[in-house]
Design goal:
alpha/beta
Length: about 180
């Protein structure tokens, strides 16, 4: 059975950098980016993120159809990094998916991931430490992202919380 690690943290906590450092131990890495470059500033961020990854990694950009992509991928990877679940949730909400549909999509993706031979590293923002959002869409996003994190954490073998670039082990590794 593969090993699934969920890495949680706040914005700019170092969670993506930590995920990259974990994945660099593997030869054949698939990096799945869920971000969409809808403005110049975000496109610049995406470019910098791409440049920070080893050139031999295979990058897949998929903002909404994670399960379909995972089903198409072969089993030739030692490690699969998905960065990040929070953007995936945001993209699904903006594409008019209901909470129920989003949760079903995440559960389907987890079923496919469990069949992979690769080490799985999932990155997500911890959304429950801030203020209650002032608008309905913000609250809906926070609620769904929090539920998704709980579902993924329950299925993960290991959960890390990153603070200032440092990992705190939330759920112990399976030996």
């Amino acid at each position: 059975m593969n090993k699934i690690t969920l890495i949680l943290g706040g914005a700019r906590s170092g969670k993506s950098s930590y995920a990259l450092s974990m994945a660099k131990r593997y030869k054949k890495v698939a990096f799945i980016a869920t971000c969409q470059g809808k403005d110049q500033e975000m496109r610049k961020r995406i470019k910098l993120h791409k440049e920070s990854r080893p050139k031999h990694w295979e990058t897949f950009e998929e903002p909404r159809e994670l399960t379909k992509l995972l089903k198409k991928m072969n089993n030739n990877f030692d490690c699969i990094v998905i960065d990040c679940l929070t953007l995936l949730v945001s993209n699904l909400i903006l594409a008019a998916n209901s909470q129920k549909q989003i949760i079903e999509k995440i559960q389907e993706s987890l079923l496919v991931l469990n069949k992979k031979k690769a080490r799985i590293i999932l990155v997500s923002n911890e959304v429950g430490l801030g203020l209650v959002p002032a608008n309905k869409l913000g609250r809906e996003f926070r609620d769904i992202a929090g539920i998704v994190n709980q579902i993924v954490a329950s299925k993960a073998n290991e959960v890390l919380f990153i603070v200032a670039g440092l990992p705190m082990n939330i759920k112990e590794k399976v030996k």
